[in-house]
Each structure stands twice: as structure tokens, then as C-alpha cells.
Amino acid sequence: MEEDILIDLSELFKVFGDSTRIKIMYLLRETPLSVGELAEKLSMTDSAVSHQLKILKNSSLVRGKREGKSVIYSLADDHVLLILNQGLEHVTEK
Fold first, then answer.
1. pLDDT of residue 3
2. How large is the C-alpha radius of gyration of the chain?
3. Which end of the chain has fewer beta carbons closer than 10 Å to its terminal beta carbon, N or C?
4. Strand order of the sheet with strand 33-34?
5. Please, which pLDDT band fits residue 94 given cuts at 50, 70 and 90?
6. Are 14 and 5 in contact (CB under 8 A)?
């Protein structure tokens, strides 16, 4: 496998290495949410959530869709959901 692909994979897993970003993606598994809704559910500031969403968006893990004055975030695609579900399955195995 080419080195640059492995580096990209490593960078992707680094994004998954933050518990706040995992919590955001976990919430987005259920339903799309705005920054304010995520901030409320996570007991965080809008600014802190926006910062994490920017990282997730830059890694193509979430996407935002403008609805009026708000941006509603969701998981980017089924691959992200699969990665989350596989990770959850792995850590909950006995």
C-alpha cells in the first residue's frame, strides 16, 4: 500500500482519538443536530462544539446543511456509521 494512503489512514484515526468528537458523532448517529443542540446535549459552549465540528468536517466525517440561519450536522456517510458501530461492537465484546 502506498505510504501516503497509510498516512491519511493514520490521520483519520487521530480524529477518532478525541472523546468529544466521538460523543458528537455518536449523537449524530441518531439524528442530525445543530451546533446549539449538540452544545446543550454535551454541556459545552457553541464555540467548543464548532471547533470540533470543523475538525470532523475537514476529515469528511460530518457534513453540514444550511437550514435558515442554522447549520444542521449529520454523519457524512454510511462509512462513518459503520466505523462507529464496529468500534462500539469491539469495545463492548466480552
1. 93
2. 14
3. C
4. 33-34, 70-75, 62-67
5. confident
6. no
